[in-house]
What does this fold into?
Amino acid sequence: MTALIIVLAIIVLLVVVAIGIYNSLVVKRNRVKNGWSQIDVQLKRRIDLIPNLVETVKGYAAHEKAIFERIAEARSLAINAKGPAESAKANNTLTDTLKTLFAVVENYPNLKANENFLKLQEELSATENKIAFSRQFYNDVVMDYNNSTQMFPSNIFAGMFGFKQAEFYNVPEAEREAPKVKF
It folds into this structure.
C-alpha cells in the first residue's frame, strides 16, 4: 500500500512538473510573439510618418524626385515584409533611403528650420529609438524561449508539442560596418 502511494505521488509530481514546463514554454512563445508585435507596431508607426515627412520635404526639394521614389519603394517593401529576416532587410533599406532624404535636407536651410519638418524629424527619431528597444527586447525573449526549447528537460516537451525555435532579428552583414565620417 505504501509503495502504491509513493508511485502515485511520483506520477502526480511528474504530471505537475510536465504541466509547469509546458505552460512555461507557452508563456515564452507568447512573449516572442508579443515582442515581434511590438517591433511591428513601431515599424508601422515609422511607415505612417514617412509620407508626412516626404510631403514636407517635397515642397522645398521638388526636383529630388528620384529620392522620393526610392523612399516610396523602400516603404512598400517594409510594409509587405514577412518575418524578422525579411523585415530587417526591408527596414534597413528604408533607413538607408531616409538617410539620403536627410542628406538632401542639409541643402535646404529653410526646410531645416520648418516647424512641421522639425516635429516630424523629432517624432521619427523617437520612433527609431523605440524600434531599437523593441528589437533588443524581442531578441532577449527569443533567446530565453530558444534556451527553453533546447535545454533539458523542457526540450523533450518542446519536441513533443511542436515548439520550434524562434528567429532572431538580425542586422544584415552590410549594415554592421561602422559608417565612414569625413570632414
